[in-house]
């Protein structure tokens, strides 16, 4: 079978768990050398050790520019280049009503979820521009498109990622660099488990809850999103830039019940209810 990323080098933030881990595994299977970036050092090192020679872990706090610069430099020093940057690290961050928002929590949410992406784009472009090639992919959220399904600051920064990506795509296309955004739906992951069952470690519970409202018959898995990221990173998407790819079972594209659909909600009710709860409406 042809490996779609054979000979490529990818750096993936938030790469030790959830969507990031699934992307690391898929890219590695497809022939890429992978630099796993995460603040979770034990999990990141364990994954790199499992994958072997074409994988390395770099402890990275994406809110710190020096950490992101070191991540990119490690990719170049270890593997000779950086072809793909996946800005995936994120936190739910500040919760509750807007009039009760603690600015320290808001600042942290912005620092990790948006500043981290800016740093990733900046330093990826630094090493990609001289080679006149590269791909930058950043993770947004349905909360960045639809109101009321996520915390306020999280929703704002996820919307910001889309605007930032589109703007940077317009700049970097002249350098042969593609810039795109992925929108995962309610994926069975530690972050989502923390919302829908109040326990980031209870993936089975999240699977059960999300399964009751799955729009296409089953919950979205991290590997499903990794497949979308792989497409954007591969030559199959050679002329795709400035795009937003939803992998959300139609949540952002068809968010209300169809008159041709009987007995099913088109919005994942559990996630909406959780969004209202952590937003302070209940």
UniProtKB/TrEMBL annotation:
GO BP, one annotated term: steroid metabolic process
Pfam families documented for this protein: adh_short_C2 (PF13561)
InterPro entries reported in the protein's UniProt record: NAD(P)-bd_dom_sf, SDR_fam
GO molecular function, one term: oxidoreductase activity
SUPFAM superfamilies: NAD(P)-binding Rossmann-fold domains
Assigned keywords, A-Z: Lipid metabolism, NAD, Oxidoreductase, Steroid metabolism
Family: Belongs to the short-chain dehydrogenases/reductases (SDR) family.
Protein name: Short-chain dehydrogenase/reductase (SDR) family protein
Species name: Thermobifida fusca TM51
């Amino acid at each position: 079978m042809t490996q779609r990323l054979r000979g490529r080098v990818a750096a993936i933030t938030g790469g030790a768990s959830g969507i990031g881990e699934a992307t690391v595994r898929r890219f590695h299977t497809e022939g890429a050398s992978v630099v796993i970036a995460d603040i979770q050092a034990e999990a990141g090192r364990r994954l790199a050790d499992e994958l072997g020679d074409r994988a390395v872990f770099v402890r990275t706090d994406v809110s710190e520019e020096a950490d992101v610069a070191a991540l990119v430099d490690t990719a170049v020093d270890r593997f000779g280049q950086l072809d793909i940057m996946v800005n995936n690290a994120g936190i739910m961050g500040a919760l509750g009503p807007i009039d009760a928002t603690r600015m320290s929590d808001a600042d942290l949410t912005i620092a990790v979820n948006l500043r981290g992406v800016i740093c990733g784009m900046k330093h990826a472009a630094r090493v990609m521009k001289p080679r006149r090639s590269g791909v930058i992919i950043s993770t947004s959220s349905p909360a960045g498109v639809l109101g009321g399904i996520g915390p306020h600051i999280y929703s704002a920064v996820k919307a910001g990622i889309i605007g930032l990506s589109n703007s940077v795509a317009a700049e970097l296309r002249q350098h042969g660099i593609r810039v795109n955004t992925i929108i995962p739906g309610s994926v069975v992951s530690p972050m989502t488990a923390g919302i829908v069952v109040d326990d980031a470690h209870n993936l089975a519970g999240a699977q059960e809850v999300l399964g009751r409202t799955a729009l296409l018959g089953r919950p979205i898995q991290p590997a499903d999103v990794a497949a979308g990221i792989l497409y954007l990173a591969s030559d199959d998407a050679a002329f795709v830039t400035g795009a937003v790819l939803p992998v959300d079972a139609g949540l952002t594209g068809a968010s209300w019940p169809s008159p041709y659909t009987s007995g099913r909600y088109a919005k994942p009710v559990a996630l909406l209810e959780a969004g209202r709860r952590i937003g302070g409406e209940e």
